[in-house]
Amino acid sequence: MLSYQHAYHAGNLADLYKHALLASILAYLTAKPKPLSYLETHAGRGLYDLSSPEADKTGEAAAGITRALAENWLPADHPLCLALDAVRARHGASAYPGSPLIARHFLRPGDVAHLAELHPAEHEALAEIAGFAHLHRQDGFQMAQAICPPTPRRGLLLIDPSYEVKADYDAIPRQIAKLARKWNVGVIVLWYPILTDLRHAPMVEALRRNHPEALVSEVRFPPARPGHGMVGSGMVVLNPPYGLAEEALRIEALYDR
């Protein structure tokens, strides 16, 4: 069983970037009255406590969402801030939503959510807060391939693996190509880390080649601690909603300050 535990990293600079764009997409999709499907391949536990020993140990949230809120990186009416406010009103001032609870904030009656999480402890924690969704304790790519195209057909798929399995970098372009053929109207979103060894680069190049109309956005930031390999974060979005490219540029500019 894979050992990655996102509680050590929740709310860091990578999460802030990923969740700001995800919330923007969801806000756009749910502004229209048509129902949608939300799918997620690697959901995690869905809710994190930034006062936990895990968060304190790394300090990544302090350099991420905590700093961003203190310095007003995002306006109060930004979709991510609205989702964060709602989660903290429900779960306390140190709560931080993973992507499932960000989605929950925007989803409406009639929308359908499918969340996959294979890790038993993470799946058990997810089940406590994700009663709004269909939960799948299975490989997320298998879930997505089985469900796509979903009903409703309009919607969003988030692919957000831990990349502990290095073969993911080779497999993801093929997985996305199959999903895009099955679900050509779906907004398919991939998050990936930017590491010092640039192992992500061939994957991103393959995605650019296979999907030339996709939006590719990246940010860079200092390593969380000496020797830490992640120095940035990227998103590839197939069928990006109107205005997302401009929002991505605004978010990218925050990391250039």
Fold topology:
Elements: H1 13-30, E1 37-40, E2 47-49, H2 53-58, H3 60-70, H4 79-91, E3 95-97, H5 99-106, E4 112-116, H6 120-129, E5 134-136, H7 140-147, E6 155-159, H8 168-182, E7 187-195, H9 201-210, E8 215-220, E9 230-238, H10 244-254
Parallel strand pairs: 1-4, 1-6, 4-5, 6-7
Antiparallel strand pairs: 2-3, 7-9, 8-9
Describe this structure in words.
- This protein has one domain (6-254): Rossmann fold (3-Layer(aba) Sandwich).
- It starts with 12 loop residues before the first helix and ends with a helix.
- The mean pLDDT is 95.
- It is globular.
- Helix 1 runs parallel beside helix 5 (99-106).
- It has 257 residues and is an alpha/beta fold.
- The protein has a seven-stranded mixed β-sheet with strand order 5-4-1-6-7-9-8, sandwiched between helices.
- The chain contains ten helices and nine strands.
- Belongs to the RlmJ family.
Our Rg estimate from Cα atoms comes to 17 Å
The description of the largest β-sheet is: 7 strands, mixed
Estimated structural class? alpha/beta
Number of discrete helical segments: 10
So, CATH architecture?
3-Layer(aba) Sandwich
At CATH level 3, the topology is: Rossmann fold
Taken as a percent bin, the fraction of beta residues is 15-25%
- The strands making up the biggest β-sheet line up spatially as 5-4-1-6-7-9-8
Pfam family, one: RsmJ
Site (Interaction with substrate rRNA): 4
Catalytic activity: adenosine(2030) in 23S rRNA + S-adenosyl-L-methionine = N(6)-methyladenosine(2030) in 23S rRNA + S-adenosyl-L-homocysteine + H(+)
Organism: Paracoccus denitrificans (strain Pd 1222)
